């Protein structure tokens, strides 16, 4: 591939600037919802007055912060995207974004998201601020963790527990969610992200193009990436198991469904040009979407519906957590 350069017009197009905000990626902020549901299930004394309006404001705040991070990512990654067969056509590398206006857009979106977050409360604001700071550390030097093997996945996937935390604080800021729940959510995010890297590695091959596109991929081989996928998947299920044994045993019924979703996603990573590289397009995978929806529905019900038989099959050895203290 030739060493193409970024051609930026004097005035960027509106479509280009909207594209780098990645409004189509707002669907990823559905990961806020489990935090809301978990907070309602585990802390029934939470004040639900005005919850609907707080939820709308909170989700919009997270969406704006996410778009701020996406904008920064599009700008600073443009020189590297030139080495990717698909991403080289993004708005910044193809010259449809004015860079000074792009940086202004990054800051305005962050300020708007932070302003909405303040209307909910200090704890929620801290969670979305952490989401923005992690976006900066992921993309900007001297940290730019996306170039560091392992930290690339770990720091990108930490957005998952931060979104869960935001959802939790929309409901109740008086208590901190279970650490095992946050860790499981983090490791699940790492699992999906590692599969994305595996799919990218397979697409880009072993040539210099791969490391030019993403430096962290220069360290990895498909075998190494599959090893990390196994680690993250195992860690996610271990922390999830620890969470349900302490807080909601009924969720053990959902284990086979969770395992099915994870297995289907891993299979997706082996498919050339699959949606594993573009999670915003996962809706095009009907079988996976059905499995995800069924799994989410069952888990949501089990957070509120008790199955007495489980008390006999799995007699408790640890007292249930008291969230009122």
> What is the CATH T-level topology of the largest domain?
Tetracycline Repressor, domain 2
Strand content: under 5%
CATH superfamily of the largest domain: UbiA prenyltransferase
**Counted beta strands:** 0
Mean pLDDT across every amino acid position: 91
The succession of helices and strands, N to C, reads HHHHHHHHHHHHHH
Number of domains: 2
- Spatial extent as radius of gyration: 21 Å
Structural class: mainly alpha
Distance between the termini: 62 Å
What is the CATH class designation of the largest domain? Mainly Alpha
* Helicity, as a percent range: 55-70%
How is the main sheet built? none
**CATH architecture label of the largest domain:** Orthogonal Bundle
List the helices and strands and how they pair.
Layout: H1 14-20, H2 33-42, H3 51-76, H4 78-81, H5 99-118, H6 122-139, H7 151-157, H8 159-171, H9 179-204, H10 208-213, H11 222-247, H12 255-269, H13 286-302, H14 309-313
């Amino acid at each position: 591939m030739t060493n193409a350069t970024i051609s930026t017009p004097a005035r960027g197009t509106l479509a280009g600037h909207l594209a780098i905000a990645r409004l189509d990626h707002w669907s990823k902020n559905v990961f806020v919802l489990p935090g809301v549901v978990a907070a309602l299930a585990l802390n029934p004394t939470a004040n639900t007055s005005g919850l609907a309006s707080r939820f709308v404001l909170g989700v919009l705040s997270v969406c704006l912060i996410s778009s701020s991070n996406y904008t920064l990512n599009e700008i600073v990654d443009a020189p590297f995207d030139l080495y990717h067969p698909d991403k080289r056509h993004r708005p910044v590398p193809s010259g449809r974004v004015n860079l000074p206006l792009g940086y202004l857009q990054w800051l305005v979106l962050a300020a708007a998201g932070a302003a909405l977050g303040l209307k909910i409360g200090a704890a929620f604001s801290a969670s979305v601020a952490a989401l923005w700071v992690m976006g900066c550390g992921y993309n900007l030097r001297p940290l730019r963790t996306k170039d560091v093997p392992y930290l690339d996945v770990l720091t990108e996937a930490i957005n998952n527990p931060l979104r869960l935390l935001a959802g939790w604080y929309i409901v109740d800021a008086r208590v901190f969610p279970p650490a095992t729940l946050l860790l499981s959510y983090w490791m699940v995010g790492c699992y999906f992200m590692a599969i994305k890297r595996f799919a990218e590695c397979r697409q880009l091959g072993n040539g210099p193009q791969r490391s030019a596109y993403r430096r962290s991929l220069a360290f990895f081989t498909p075998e190494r990436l599959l090893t990390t996928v196994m680690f993250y998947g195992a860690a996610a299920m271990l922390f999830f198991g620890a969470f349900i044994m302490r807080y909601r045993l009924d969720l053990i019924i959902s284990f086979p469904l969770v395992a099915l979703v994870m297995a289907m996603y891993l299979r997706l990573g082996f498919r050339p040009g699959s949606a594993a590289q573009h999670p915003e397009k996962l809706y095009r995978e009907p079988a996976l979407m059905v499995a995800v929806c069924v799994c989410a529905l069952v888990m949501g019900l089990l957070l509120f519906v008790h199955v007495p038989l489980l008390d006999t099959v799995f007699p408790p050895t640890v007292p249930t957590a008291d969230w009122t203290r």
